Structures are given as C-alpha cells and as structure tokens.
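Notebook B, p. 112. Complex prediction, attempt 2.
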Amino acid sequence: MVGIGAGVDQPRALVAQSGEEFLRPRDAGEVSVLGFDPGRETKRLKDRIGVCLQATNLPERITVREALRLFASLYSKTVDADALLERLMLVDKRDAPYGKLSGGQKQRLALALALINDPQMLFLDEPSAGLDPQARLEIHSLMQELRREQRTVLLTTHYIEEAEKLCDRVAIVDEGRIVAMGTPEEIRSRTLGQARVEVRCERPLGAADPPRWADADPAQISDDRMTIVVGTRKPARTLVDLVRWIDQLGVELADVHLRHPSLEDVFIELTGKSLRE
Amino acid sequence: MKAYLALTQNELRLAFRDKQVLFFNYAFPLIFFFLLSAMLHAERGGSVVAAIVTNVLVIGILGNGFFGAGIRAVQEREQNILRRFKVAPISPLPILGASLTTGLLLFVPAILLTIGLARLLYGMPIPDRPVSLLIFLAIGALAFRSIGLIIAAVSNSTAESNVLVQLLYMPMMFLSGAAIPAAMLPRWTQTVSQFMPAAYLVSGMQGILTQHESLFANWKSAGALVVTLCLAIFVAMRLFRWEKDEKLQGSAKLWVAGVMVPFLALGVYQFRTNEQTVKNRTLWRQMQRGDAFLIRNARIFVGDGRVLENGSVLVRKGRIEGVYEGDNAQLSTLKVDIVEASGKTVMPGLIDVHVHLGAPGGMFAEAKDFATEKIAERGLAQYLYSGVTTVKSTGDTLDGSLALRQRVAIGDLLGAELFVSGPLFTTEGGHGTEYFSWLEGPAKAAAVEQFVRTPANPDQAREQVRQLKTAGVDAIKAVLESGRTGMLFARMDLAMFRAVVQEANGQHLPASVHTGNARDVEDAVDAGAASVEHGSFSDPIPDAVFARMAKTGIAYDPTLSVLEAIRDLSAGRPDLLRRSLVQQAVSQKLLKGTAELLKDPKTANADRAAGLDGAIRIAQDNLRRAWKTGVPLVTGSDAGNMLVFHGPTVHRELQLWVEAGIPPAVALQAATLNAARLLRADARIGVVAAGHDANLLVVDGDPTRDISATERISTVVLKGERVRRVDLFDASKNPLQ
C-alpha cells in the first residue's frame, strides 16, 4: 500500500512492494525524481531526499544530538538541529543514548534524521509500524504538517486508515505491480464496491429464499440463517425492502448495519487478500 | 571529507564509551605485557623488554584489526546500522576510511602506554628511531585494520566473520612470533610464518627497536604491508555491503586471498633467501644476550694476572657490568638471576689464536662429510662448547671466513667469535700451496685465490695486503719456512716477506708468521711480526731472539698440541680421541673415522714418532725459555690438523704447557688477555672487567692450581648469553642451527 502526497506521477520505479528496497535498478524506461535520474545521479538525489526505512538502527551509545550532527555532516544543506528536536519532541532526550530510547522516540529520531537535510521529497516506510496509538497519532500529525509544507511524501503503510487519512493519492501495490491508483475517493468509486446492508435476526429465517430486490445484488444468507447481507446501489430502498421481508416472516431484528465501501474492501476485491496478509 | 571527519570523530567517541573496545585495546595488551614481563624476566632489563613491547604491540595490532574492524563492521551491518547510511549521500570510502583512522588513533595511546611502562618499570631505552617506529607501527595498524575490513566485507554474518578471524588470528598470534618468539618455534612453522603479515610486523618492529634499524632497512616488510593496505581498501570498496540481506557469493571470498598476495610473494622470496629466518635468529640471539645475572661466590681469574679469591660478576645486556670482591650485601637486592659459583672459578672465555676452520681435525669415513662450511660451523660450535669464546682463523678461504664471521657476529650462528686472517702469504711452492697441487685449471685458480697469496714482488705484496684490509680481514698470516727433509718448501723471499709484515703493520693488522726453525723466527722478529706461530720444532731459538721478542712485545704461540697430535698419529696412539671433552664435543662420525685412521698400519710410522718426541722436547724447551725471557705467550692449537680437534684442544694445549713447566696462571693468561692483545681486542675481551664483553668460562675447581680444571666446564657465557651447551650440536633441540 503506498500513500502518495502531492505531485508524483510515476512512483512505480521507486518503490517495491514492501518499500524496503529503495532505489532498485529499473527494468526499463525513464525515471526522474526531482529532476534527477536515480540510477545516474544517485548521490545528488540522495542529498535532496529524506528517507525513513523500516528496521534501521543506530549505534547503541550514540546520543540523539550526536546522531543528528553526524547525519547533518553528510548533506550539503541542513536545517537547525535544535528546531528539529523541538518539532519532534526530542528536546528532553537529546543527550540520551539511542539504546535507551523507546520505540516511538527511536521512530521520531529516524524521522528527524530524514528531515535533517530539509528534503523536498520524503520516503517513509511504515513510519508508524509497531507504535502505540498515541505515538502513531504524533507521527500522523507530523506528516500532516509535512504535507502542509508542500513536501512530497511517499508513504508506505499497511494501515489503511493511515492512507485514507493522510494521503492525497493512493496506489495499491500487489506483488510489485500497481493495481489501483488515485485519490481515495476515486479508488473507492472506481471499484465494484457499493454499500452493503447487513442484518442480523433474533432467530433463524427458515428455509425461504429472499426475493431479488431492485438495484441490489442477490442477498446472501449465512449458514445459521440468522444473518443476511445484500450489496446495493440504493441502500435506503434495499434496507426498506429487506426489513419488510423479514417482518413478513415474523422474525425480529437483532442488529442492522449499513456499510460504505472502504479502501480495505477495494484492496480485498483487487488482490483477493486480506490487508494484514 | 566532511563526512569522513565526522564519521571518524563519531566512531572514536563511541569507541571510548565502549568498555569492550577499551578492554581489548588497552587492558588486554597490558595483561600480556605483565604476563610476558614476568615470564621472560623483564626486570633484568635488556633487549627482552623490547621484545615484550614488540609482542604486546603486535598483539594489539592484531586485535585492533581483526576484532575491532573485522567483527565490528559485520555487527554494524547485521544490526542494520549501515542500512541507515545507505540512503544518505555517502559512499563506502569515508566509512572505511573512518574505520581505518579510528583503529590507528585508538592504537596510539596503547603504543605510548606500552613503551612508557617498559621504560618506567624496566628501564627500556627510548627508541632511538621513534619516527621509523611510529611510521612502521602506523602502517602495521592500518594494514591489519584493512585486513579486518576485508574479513567484514566477505563475511555474511558475525558468526562467519568470527570463524574467519580465528582462522587468521590464531596462527598469526602463535606462529608468527607475536606470542612466542619465532626462533623458538620448529623450523616448519618458521617457514609457514614467512607467509604471514604478522611475522614481518614482529621482525620489523624488533629490528627497529633493538637493532636500531631504520624504516628503510625494513622496506620489504613495510612495503608489503602498504600494498596489502591498498589492495584491502580497494577490495573492501568493491565488496562493500550496506545490508545483511545482501549475500555474497562464496567465490568472492577469494578476494581475501588476493589481499594476501604481497605476503605470498614476500614469503616465496624469504623462502629462497632465508632472510627472515636469519633475522628471527638474530633477534632471538639478541634477546638471549640481553639477560642479566650475577655469578657469585666465585674465584675470579681476571686474566691480567690477578685472582680474586671470592667475588661476584654482574652481567647485564651482554657486558660485564661489575666485578665485586668479597661479600657485597647490595648485590642481593639486584633484580637479576643468580648463578651460584662457590668452589668454582670464573675466567675470561678462552681464546685460540691459531685455527683452520676448513678442516675438521680428524678423518671422516665418507668424503661427502668434508663439507667446508658445515665443518667450520661445527668447529665454531665446538669451541663454544669447550669454553673457547674467540678464535682466530689463520688460513682459511677468504670469502667463506668473512661470511662466517658475519653470521657469528649478528647471532645467526651460535659459535665462538671469529677473527679472520684470510689467505696465507706464501710463495710458489711454499707451505700452503701444497694443498692445491692435486687440483688443476680454474678449480685450482679459484682455490688458490681464496686460500693463498703468492706475490711476485714486494710492491704486489703490499698491494695484496691492502686489498685484504679492504676486504675486511682482522689480521695477516704469512708463512716463512723451508720445510724439512722429506717435505721441503720454497721459502718466501725475505724482501717480499718484510713488505707483507710492514704493510700489515702500516694497515694496523697484526701479522702472524708461521715459522719452521730458529732462523725463520729471527727473520720474523726482524721484520716486526706481531706473533710467531709454532716457533721452532727443530732447533733451539736463541735467548737473544726471545729477548727481542719480549722487548718489542712479539707474541709466541708454540702450538704444542699439533706437534703432539702428529706424534700420536705416527705412533697410532688414540689417547687424544679418548679425552672426555673431545668425546663430548666432536661428532661420532669424526671420532669413528679418525679411530679407523689410527688403526690403519699405513698411518703408523714409528721412526717418525720417535723423531717427533725429540721435536716436542725442543718445542717445550723453546717455550720454557720464551716464558723465562718474558715473551708474551699466546695459545694456539692449529686445530683442523689431524687429531687437533676444534675446541677441546685449547685445554690440551694448556696442559702441555704446564707439563713443559709453565705455571698454570701464566698459561691461562696466555689463553685470555695475551691472546686478546694479539687480536688487538683487549679493550673488549680477555679479562673479567667491567665494561668488557661478557665472555666467561666458569669451571669447577681452581685451574691456577690444577690446569685440568678448565675442562670441568660449569657454564659458558658468550656476550651475556649463558650458552645451552648440550643443544649446540643438536639441530632438533636447537632450532637456531
């Protein structure tokens, strides 16, 4: 799952399924990132981008400030480290050794390092993976800030709500191929996905098959004959039809759900896989 | 550059926070320092301290390179630390460079610490070539660091790099002289170690520290290390991997072999030239000679006529540091090894001023055993075994003798110190030329060139003396004799003879003159010879001639032993073979071959034996009168002749003198101080005095009362080394031979 901020047309060559392999050799064609060819002008490109990979580490005994200073020395242009520490809420921890930081702090430091060169473009590979909800929220608000600063952020994530919440454009990648790309709304609407009405009854419905309602898919009844699901383009009408039919059977309702299609549904539909796989 | 500096600064800072790094860089070498110091008695001072410093620093360099770079770099990759750098605009070069620099900088305090401790605790002198030493150490540290980086480059995991490191570290540690002196190891390991970079590190450092060599003198070692460094950086760049998931093909590990190529080349070179083995032996010798010990409660025969009935001799760093009379309480506080010598006599090492190293002194059954070089090496070892620490060769091949002298001097060969006369001055058909009469053509010319000089006129004679001086001889030997009935020789023209002696005197080379009768002696004295060899076996030398010798200080070397030997040979008497010291020092092969020769009826000649009895009486009488007249006497054995074995014969010579009526103390002085004077080396050898070379013979009993006591050898010291006499002839026990 790739979330894309503003402005990138063809991220295909830059990312792989997991996002781990950055700057992989292209199979064919032309690639341009910030006007640089990643294959030939690698170093100049690296100087202008910020990257936050999964599962990277720093030496145990390096302090937060030392790490920032060290990485600052690698770039031609840098931002003020103290301001960066402030922004990432690491001021208190600036003299703490890396080994003593919590997971969230480590992740924030990784983001700080990715931002040290004031990059125009950021590659963030699952920046919130494994973090507690609070830490994740902090990361989310940072990314929203980055977006407001007009930076291009290429975010790889397994959290569907993260992509929906943070990204202007989304691409779904399956086994190295982009299977869908666009704004979250575009993707949702472009699929076969539609609203689903789900009703649970208090007792089994008996052997009768439900009728075929207008503007709706054939209804599906669960094996215990207590739940019935109907896909529909007109949820209000289908719901009325469905409830009326159940009422006619003399069965009482236990629960009623109306669900709109999410990116998750789209994903499952496109890839045949559950998201967490 | 900015990145390199920042990375270096960072790595250095992190290293100082890491207890493990501190331990391996500073504590670990210190443990070795104190361990080795205790084991090798560093408190006695000497070059052993420098050897310890070398070992400790080399162990430090090995650890710094193999563990500091080899394993650490793999860990950084495994822990995904390098992965973070992968996405930054940085190439592997500054990372590798920072690791190299950090290794070097971490090592510098260890150098200062080790040298400082050695100086503070054990009085090691400040290295007199500090720049060479530091550059060499830096090259070594960087080269091993780079080898570590290669290991990191080719290992796919920490476990794998551990295996590789152990595979290289262990042999380098234990076979190359880093932990155990190379010369102590069996020969095959010495051969193997010639292919190990660490071996060159050890020998180069020790050369600079103890032999006062410059970096340039060690250019081959330093060069090989630099080439390794460059190759290793190149390979480490090519094979650099940022992530643990990037696996390397097995074949890529062959790159490691590529880095070893300089040492493969150097090893092959060394294998052919033996340079490294020689250097190892030399360094080992140096270490043995650096020992400190006190011989106490001994009778001291000083050499100059004085005898201290109870005294002590302190030996340190190859010299006699002090001679103390009576009990000296202060001596017990010295941090030296004690040699208890109650009832023993310490005397200067004996000197034999007349030997021929090219001949063994007996007969081998097989012709192949007559190998000049082997015979000469064995001869020098036999001398040392017998307590004879100095010999003068009076007629041997020029180049062979000079090479041998050098080998002994540097400690490559353990044997008596050698003074060289080189070729004999004689005349066509004179004594000395008869040995080549059976040769022909170029072989003869070559042998003659090495063995004799037969000048055509006085000018040529002078020129030849000067050439020998240039070649580096210590003395000149001339032959003046016309032989006897049945063995006549052409006698050297007197004008030519005088030219030889005078030119020798002008070149400050003592001229020893082989004489046959009283007339020859007189002519030698007239010409101003430094010594008369043999004197006369056929007629009395007039007292007037002896008086002139006494007045001008011309030494008299009666060589009674060779006369006795010829007599015994003619009589078929095996007594000389049965002497204990001969049995100990001479090889069984030679003893057996010589015994068979004695049994051969063709050898026996009763008439001749009877005639030689008369000659012995004449020679004894000449000696007695020479002594009474005050002629400086010296001992020469003429070893190399039949039954005149190298080494033990000097003792026999002393006994023959005493039998002839010479007091033992006079004979002993002839074999020590007087002989040293003839060699112009009495400022250094020949007496037991502070500042002199520690060449000592310790015997049981009192040879000034019983001359045979000199054969009851307790200890032989050569240049401060207590010689392991039993190992001198046993190649398996003595890897140095």
